Target: Glyoxalase
Amino acid sequence: MEVFKTHGAFSWSELLTNDPQKASEFYGKLFGWKIEVMPMPGGPADAPPYHLIKTAKGGDDAIGGLMACPQQGMPPAWGVYVTVDNVDETVAQAKAMGGKVLMDIMEVPTVGRMATIQDPQGAVINVITYAEMPEEKQ
Model:
């Protein structure tokens, strides 16, 4: 199993921004990232594209992404994802411990189930259970 699919691991970073193309150019030059523009995973055909981040020396393994802010007026921000074994249980536990759900659980085909939660002090984090790929089910 890949480390990023291990419960508790920081597994993905994502920038929500007003201009993904300009952000891709900025961070690509700053960090030497390769940016691959692709259709939004699990999104409708007319959805804005997703910008997949890869390191210059890391081969084809993606390390994060950039996308347009989903809501107008939302400030640009980086978000991180932590892998969990079961998103539903993690969200329920967070709520029981005084946390809030900022984005309800959603399923993205071929990616997984994810949600955004806020801890009792106000910090925001995303949780994800990755979808099993056919080769992983063997």
